[in-house]
């Protein structure tokens, strides 16, 4: 019975052989067939989305939609219209009527990622839909009803958020009745070799690489490493080791060199202060970008002055090349800073946002705005 149930979990694409993972698979098998709300918690990259998908995939709703919504990525002003839909003309720019994610997920499951980012005023409405499936579209007074299973996830400590007045206590208590907490990878090291094997096989096949294997010492290094980016980081590391090493046998030095080159150690040792106010943080980001381009501008001015010396006086007004360069450079600099931070932190948006001293929401918005991967 238990073995059969475990098999179900692994059928849903969950890899893991640690006691912690087996326990989680067990819980998934128990809760999946019910309609109960589940809160999935754990650090960034531990596999919260994988678990949410597994719950939906093992549920009676599996043939209905699974709608994933990242609460941290939607601008605050439109979050309610995104979740609950809106009527024509309910706010500036709301032309036609629009179904929200809850309506789109009707009969299926909604996965609300980064639930800790949901603004306080939207939390009340979310609680209502959780309790009785009822909601109002923005601009409408007609109560609508849906049958949606909710899975929420966060890497925040919601209890602390409640204490700080950023998260409603009633919603927290409602959500935490079934809480699947995924421990960080460093606390379930038995999973590391299994992940390695699975990822290596998949990546080798996809890239047409013949993988020669890994030494015991290299695997020991991988197992003892602290993996701040968890499974996502491990997956990226395996991908790079295989592709850059063209499938060659991996020795301890290769593993060590690769992991160390990914981390110059900053996020391990230096806590980055996070400003409280995201707008202030955004201003700071722009300010720092401006300071960075100040040097470029001085160089640019030098060039223009030198050209002017060579070609006679430079034209006045907005056609001056300086004016165009300034605007362009600021945007470009910001894009570059964000791309660099994402690369440095292995696409871990939480760490990148912290390093850039902006909120994750701002980072998500900018990634979208700049079309970054
Ligand atoms: N148990 C698992 N089995 C298979 N793959 C996994 C597992 N856990 C994590 N992964 C892989 O690790 C990566 C990160 O997983 P996922 O996106 O679910 O993490 P997350 O906790 O949602 O991260 P974040 O908080 O940053 O959103 C994905 O590539 C996913 O496929
Ligand atoms: Mg996620």
Structure commentary:
With 373 residues, the chain is α/β, with parallel strands linked by helices. It has three domains: 182 residues, Rossmann fold (3-Layer(aba) Sandwich), CATH 3.40.50.300; 77 residues, Helicase, Ruva Protein, domain 3, CATH 1.10.8.60; 93 residues, no CATH class. Helices cover 54% and strands 9% of the residues. The strands form three sheets. The chain has a five-stranded parallel β-sheet. A two-stranded antiparallel sheet has the order 3-4. Strands 6-7 form a two-stranded antiparallel sheet. A hairpin with a 6-residue loop joins strand 6 and strand 7. The protein is globular and about 65 Å long. The N terminus is likely disordered. Magnesium ion binds next to helix 3.
Spatial arrangement of strands, main beta sheet: 2-5-8-1-9
Briefly note the structural class of the backbone: alpha/beta
- Please identify, by name, the CATH architecture of the largest domain: 3-Layer(aba) Sandwich
Distance between the termini: 43 Å
> What multimeric state do the chains show?
single chain
Largest sheet composition: 5 strands, parallel
Gross geometry: globular
CATH superfamily label of the largest domain? P-loop containing nucleotide triphosphate hydrolases
Treating each run of at least 4 consecutive H or I residues as one helix, how many helices? Answer: 17
């Amino acid at each position: 019975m238990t073995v059969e149930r475990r098999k179900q979990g692994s059928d849903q694409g969950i890899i893991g052989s640690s006691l912690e993972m087996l326990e989680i698979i067990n819980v998934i098998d128990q809760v999946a067939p019910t309609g109960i709300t589940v809160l999935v918690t754990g650090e960034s990259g531990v596999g919260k989305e994988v678990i949410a998908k597994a719950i939906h995939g093992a549920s009676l709703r599996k043939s209905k939609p699974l709608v994933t919504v990242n609460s941290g990525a939607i601008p605050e002003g439109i979050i309610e219209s995104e979740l609950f839909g809106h009527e024509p003309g309910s706010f500036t720019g709301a032309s036609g009527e629009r179904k929200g994610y809850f309506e789109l997920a009707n009969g299926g499951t909604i996965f609300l990622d980064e639930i800790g980012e949901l603004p306080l005023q939207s939390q009340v409405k979310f609680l209502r839909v959780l309790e009785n499936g009822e909601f109002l579209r923005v601009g409408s007074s007609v109560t609508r009803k849906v049958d949606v299973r909710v899975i929420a996830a966060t890497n925040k400590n919601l209890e602390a958020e409640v204490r700080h007045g950023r998260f409603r206590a009633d919603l927290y208590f409602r959500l935490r009745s079934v809480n699947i907490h995924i421990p960080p990878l460093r606390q379930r090291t038995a999973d590391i070799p299994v992940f390695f094997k699975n990822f290596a096989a998949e990546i080798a096949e996809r890239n047409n690489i013949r993988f020669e294997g890994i030494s015991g010492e290299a695997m020991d290094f991988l197992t003892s490493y602290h993996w701040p980016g968890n499974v996502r980081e491990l997956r990226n590391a395996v991908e790079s080791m295989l592709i850059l090493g063209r499938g060659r046998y991996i020795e301890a030095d290769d593993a060590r060199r690769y992991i160390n080159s990914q981390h110059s150690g900053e996020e391990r040792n230096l806590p980055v202060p996070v400003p409280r106010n995201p707008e202030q943080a955004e201003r700071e980001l722009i300010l720092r970008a401006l300071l960075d381009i100040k040097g470029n501008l001085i160089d640019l001015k030098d060039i223009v002055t030198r050209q002017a010396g060579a070609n006679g006086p430079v034209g006045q007004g907005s056609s001056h090349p300086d004016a165009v360069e300034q605007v362009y450079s600021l945007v470009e600099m910001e894009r570059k800073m964000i791309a660099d931070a994402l690369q440095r932190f292995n696409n871990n948006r939480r760490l990148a946002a912290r390093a850039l001293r902006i909120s994750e929401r701002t980072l998500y918005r900018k990634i979208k705005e700049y079309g970054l991967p």
